[in-house]
User: What shape does this take?
Amino acid sequence: MKLYDVYPLFDINIVKGKGCQVWDEKGTEYLDLYGGHAVISIGHAHPHYVEMISNQVAQLGFYSNSVINKLQQDLADRLGELSGYDDYQFFLINSGAEANENALKLASFYNGRTRVLVQEKAFHGRTSLAVEATHNPKIIAPINANGHVTYLPMNDLSAWEVELAKGDVCAVMIECIQGVGGIRLVTPEFMQGLRVLCDKYDTVLICDEIQCGYGRSGKFFAHQYTGVRPDIITVAKGIGNGFPMGGVLISPKFTPVYGQLGTTFGGNHLACAAAIAVLDVMKQENLVENAAKVGAFLMEELKKFPQIKEVRGQGLMIGMEFEEPIKDIRRKLLFEQKVFTGVSGTNVIRLLPPLCLSMEEAKEFLKRFKEVL
Ligand SMILES: Cc1ncc(COP(=O)(O)O)c(C=O)c1O
Assistant: This one.
């Protein structure tokens, strides 16, 4: 059987990882400034993570959501404490798209409405409503184009007010730092204005923190730079450091109803062990602070390169926009300098390293980057 060929692949087979390094099958070492697409938060093969998962799978890998799973509450307690959301409720699923799908469902159950507002260039996933909320007609199948979603310019509060004032908007979904959209940041004023408008028109404010959250921005959540508390926060990617997992943080104003949400795999024992290990390491190794410190250093140094048109970002979520397509630079970085990086569109290189990236590794990256410019 052939694989369904939807990914343009680099001809590299990664077989091993440690911290911010990965190795291919020939033993070539690469510096990982991509984190497997913002997924590796605490670094590859962290010993505590390996131990927690190994012990858990030897004990019990999975049982269903029809019985108590104390690991779920343990995870929620730790997440509440570390994120500053201990008064919220937590629902677990398996991916980012699923997190957003459930967030939008909750919003619609809450106010009975069906319209959603998102930013232009938004990316919220590839399932039915999440993909409709993604501003890319090429990936919205006709069956998903159901007219629920309006795409609006980022930071242009008056444009959002016009739509919200119609009184029929179910939810506003925001990436405070757009990932796929090219590392673009909301302004605090825009978010504060949205918060007021959402309250006024009984619209649910959702922050999609799947890429920019979980410490990547240098705060636990990127929206915490804006002083706003959303009604719902979605997380995935870094939450399991590669173990497939997603979560929805839900404000106390939502009342749970038996059966309204559900999942077979979400919050299983093995996933929870992985996610608890992630939070342990984030806390013990001060990885949120590290992301802020190393990220600020990288941004400052990158701004000195005259070849880069603009450097944008926060913490270890950094975009470098060039005048020309970056395909060649990225290929050289990978094949000549052995550095993995990400991309947004054609002209932006995206850095999404593990949050444990050290100053030495950041300097090493800058050295190799200089070579290809
Ligand atoms: C901001 C954002 N939302 C949602 C998703 C979808 O997550 P998943 O691929 O786990 O479904 C992504 C994935 O890249 C993302 O960056």
Q: What stands out?
A: The chain is about 35% helix and 20% strand. The radius of gyration is 20 Å. The longest strand covers residues 169-174. The pocket of pyridoxal-5'-phosphate is lined by residues 95-97, 100, 123-125, 175, 179-180, 208, 210-211, 236 (CB under 6 Å).
